[in-house]
Amino acid sequence: MEIEFRGVVAGYSPTLTILNELDFRAPSGEMTLLVGPNGAGKSTALKTLFGLLAPRSGSIRLGGEEVAGLAPRAMLARGVVFVPQGRNLFGTLSVLHNLELGGVTLRSGLRGRVERVLERFPRLRERIASQASTLSGGEQKQLEIARALLLEPKVLLIDEPSIGLSPIISHDVFRLLRKLADDGTTVLMVEQNVRSALAYADRALALEMGRLALDRPAGELLGDPNLNRLFLGATTRRSA
Length: 240
Hints:
Layout: E1 3-13, E2 16-26, E3 31-35, H1 42-50, E4 57-62, E5 65-66, H2 72-77, E6 80-83, H3 95-102, H4 110-120, H5 122-126, H6 137-149, E7 155-159, H7 167-182, E8 186-190, H8 194-198, E9 203-208, E10 211-217, H9 218-222, H10 227-231
Parallel strand pairs: 3-8, 3-9, 6-7, 7-8
Antiparallel strand pairs: 1-2, 1-4, 4-5, 9-10
Helix pairs in contact: 3-6
């Protein structure tokens, strides 16, 4: 499903506005990368889309349907799943129990979905009875993503998936997200490891002060000598 922001204004208090009439489009079935300096509005955009923050004004469309202001449960019902930054696991529970909790809203078919997810993550199958807190950083990130995939999302929002991971494990995660997009899932990702993520993404959107500063195909940017400057907020240039 395509994601579209039109003039979205949002923030954390009446005096703290983060998104300033933000406009962007993330095409259906593609992997779109949101980048920019700290405070640019990347994570806020994900939270606003998922319903954790209510926009003050503007339009958010999902597959052509207006969804601005809907609660997270309503977004889940529309096939949108959010994997936030940091570790979001039940550390004292097993891998299996963490997965089962991810499917707590499902009325049936949980066992089959767990089995299908484990086919993607053989390492998690090996550690199915282990406490989540004993997993490596890479294994914990796999578990977070696996738990999200239980819901068979049409749209996956993921914030900083490579934090705390080695370069090798980071690339494993990016490859998995690339495969999801190739299979038809719309992936919208916030990531500071820009150069590595660009190798897997379809498009890159640079935010600056809550506005879209740049929109270009990811492949074009990999060879750009101004790559770091573009994504550290030193430009207000916008291109399609």
